[in-house]
TrEMBL record:
Positions of the CT398-like coiled coil hairpin domain: 15-194
UniProt-recorded name of the protein: Nucleic acid-binding Zn-ribbon protein
Coiled coil location: 45-86, 125-155
Keyword flag DNA damage: no
Domain C4-type zinc ribbon: 205-239
Gene3D superfamilies reported in the protein's UniProt record: 1.10.287.1490
PANTHER family: PHOSPHOLIPASE C-BETA-2-RELATED, SCAVENGER RECEPTOR CLASS A MEMBER 3
Length: 252
């Protein structure tokens, strides 16, 4: 059976308490409310992104369609203007004048039809631009909210990290001077058992696994020398005997 000064064993509970606090802070760091909120925001932003891409694509397509419609109207208008100027110049034959008049009439009909198409495209473009404006505003709002929550997350992490750093300094002092073999055993057990390597023996209960020990195990522990490093037969943790202990100094 390993041995270590009784006082070192009792001080090991202080080390365990600090290590437990670090574990709690690590859990807190992974479960900040801001992280849950960011996950929700990312999902909403991802859902909105599809609508944003679709809306932008549709607006771009309609703008190209409007440009073409405007160009078609302009071409017909220019042709009609040229014909009208030729007709008004008086330098054309009667036959050509009739042909130009007919063509001007046809161009007017064509221009009216193209202007209807142009108007329809303009109306559809206006509607889609309005939709795009609303989608972009919603996206900007979500992005701003995400930035705000990210700042909250970073502040929370910074606060926790500062506490961890402070505890690291306290732990270094707590470990300083402790029996080397005891600390090594503690670290080994702690790694194997999820962070708790030492616990107080509270009455007949191991506060590491929270189980009552059988009478035979208790008898063996109580008969052991004060410097003997005893371990719980149920969970394997180092059991620290503290006179008059009523509550656990470390939890599993």
């Amino acid at each position: 059976m390993a041995t270590a000064p009784p006082e070192d064993q009792r001080r090991l509970l202080d080390v365990q308490a600090l290590d437990t606090r670090v574990q709690q802070l690590a859990h807190q760091r992974k479960n900040l409310p801001a992280l849950t909120r960011l996950t929700e925001l990312d999902a909403r932003i991802a859902d909105l992104r599809a609508s944003l891409v679709e809306s932008r694509t549709r607006v771009a397509d309609l703008r190209r369609e409007l440009t073409k419609a405007e160009s078609d109207v302009e071409q017909v208008r220019n042709r009609a203007d040229r014909d009208q100027k030729r007709l008004e110049s008086g330098g054309v034959s009667a036959k050509d004048a009739v042909a130009l008049t007919d063509e001007i009439g046809s161009l007017a009909t064509r221009q009216a039809a193209l202007e209807e198409i142009e108007l329809d495209v303009m109306e559809r473009l206006e509607a889609h631009e309005d939709t795009l404006t609303k989608v972009e505003a919603a996206n900007d709002e979500l992005a701003a909210e995400k930035a705000k929550v990210e700042a909250e997350r970073d502040a929370g992490w910074a606060e926790i990290d500062a506490q961890v750093q402070e505890i690291a300094g306290e732990r270094a002092k707590a470990v300083d001077g402790l029996d080397t073999a005891l600390v090594k055993l503690y670290e080994k057990i702690r790694a194997q058992l999820g962070g708790t390597g030492a616990a107080v023996l509270n009455g007949n209960r191991c506060e590491g696994c929270r189980m009552d020990l059988p009478p035979a195990d208790l008898a063996t522990i109580r008969s052991a020398a004060p410097d003997a490093v005893v371990r719980c037969e149920e969970c394997g943790r180092i059991l620290v005997r503290v006179a008059g202990a009523k509550t656990g100094a470390a939890a599993g």
